[in-house]
Amino acid sequence: MIAVYPGSFDPITLGHLDIIERGCQLFERVIVAVARNPNKAPLFTVHQRVEHIRSCTQHLVNLELDTFDTLTVTYARKRNALVLLRGLRVLSDFEYELQMAHTNQSLSPQVETVFLATSNEYSFLSSSLVKEIAKFGGSVAHLVPKNIAIELEQCFSKNPPLVSTPTPMAPTMPMD
Ligand code: ADP
Q: Which among 29, 77, 79, 89 is annotated as catalytic?
């Protein structure tokens, strides 16, 4: 059975990698599909994100990497996948993921969404959190594969966040 694991992976974290590795043990083939979503402004290009994933998944023989810019179920059908693989972390994920699963089921009843619960140590971990830490100079070496931690560090050392200077208090009365 083929499973598609769709997502932004901006960038891939150890939490994503954990789901990919466990998915590869459950399914004959897993396709990690990086979304080209024009509504999101990613830090890394789709090409960079695919290369990041490739760099840390060399050991997985039944894994394939791809990109897509259609509805997820349309992509899954095109690839003959019967399963959409998703990860669940905390309760807040559940509401969104359930909504997506129901929507996808209404669009394509033959495609099932299968959720894997995150491993305990990654339950707090998200790509946004990783970017936020790296942006302010914190270490993300324990959250993402080593080469990606280095890339994030370089990325933000070139473009440090703009620190806003306190604005002078606005006068309450017009001054003339
Ligand atoms: P999307 O934009 O589709 O949410 P993400 O890259 O943020 O893309 O997430 C892709 C999938 O990976 C989602 O199902 C998300 O819940 C899951 N995921 C993200 N981080 C983790 C984690 N730390 N542990 C388990 N699953 C995760």
A: 89
Q: How many CB atoms lie within 10 A of CB 69?
A: 11
Domains along the sequence of the chain with CATH:
2-119 (3.40.50.620)
Q: What is the pLDDT of residues 51-72, one digit of tens each?
A: 999 999 999 999 999 999 999 9
Taking only the tens place, the pLDDT of each residue in 73-94 is 999 999 999 999 999 998 878 9
Residues with CB under 6 A from ligand 1: 7-9, 13, 15-16, 19, 86-87, 89, 93, 118, 122, 125-127
Residue 40: active-site member: yes
